[in-house]
Structure formats: structure tokens, C-alpha cells
Amino acid sequence: MLNMSKDPFVPSHLCEGMTEWATNITFNTLAVEYRGILSHRKQVTEAIENFIVKAEFHYS
């Protein structure tokens, strides 16, 4: 789960309790707003790439 902690439309507290429903979930928090995908492309890309690398290692 990529959590953009400064997003006013999807507040961080909505992620609380997800681990009760999803047993294999990881969180990566970026201090960006909802436009973080556009304004912080490098940070978002790195977070996604890190997740893929960890997932590939875990499932290989």
C-alpha cells in the first residue's frame, strides 16, 4: 500500500486496520499530497520498484 500522508482526500487513518483483512500487506508512506504521483515521480517510482523487488524475492 502506497500511502501519501498529506493527501486530504484519502487520509492516512483509512489504512489503519488493513492488516486485519490482508495478511500479506506492506506499507510505504510518502509525505506527499494526492498529486504526488505527478509532483514526486521519482519517490513514487522508487517505492513501487522497491515493492516489486521485495515481492519477486519473496515469491521466487
Written overview of the protein:
It is a single chain. The chain has 60 residues and is mainly alpha-helical. The chain contains 3 helices and 2 strands. The protein has helices at residues 18-21, 36-39, 41-59, and strands at residues 2-4, 28-30. A two-stranded parallel sheet has the order 1-2. The two termini are 21 Å apart.
What's the gyration radius in Å?
A: 13 Å
Shape: flat
Q: Structural class of the secondary structure composition? A: mainly alpha
Largest sheet, strands/sense/barrel: 2 strands, parallel
Percentage of β-strand residues: 5-15%
Biggest sheet, spatial arrangement of strands: 1-2
**Mean pLDDT, rounded to whole units?**
85
What order do the SSEs take from the amino end to the carboxyl end, as H and E?
EHEHH
Record field, number of beta strands: 2
The total count of helices amounts to 3
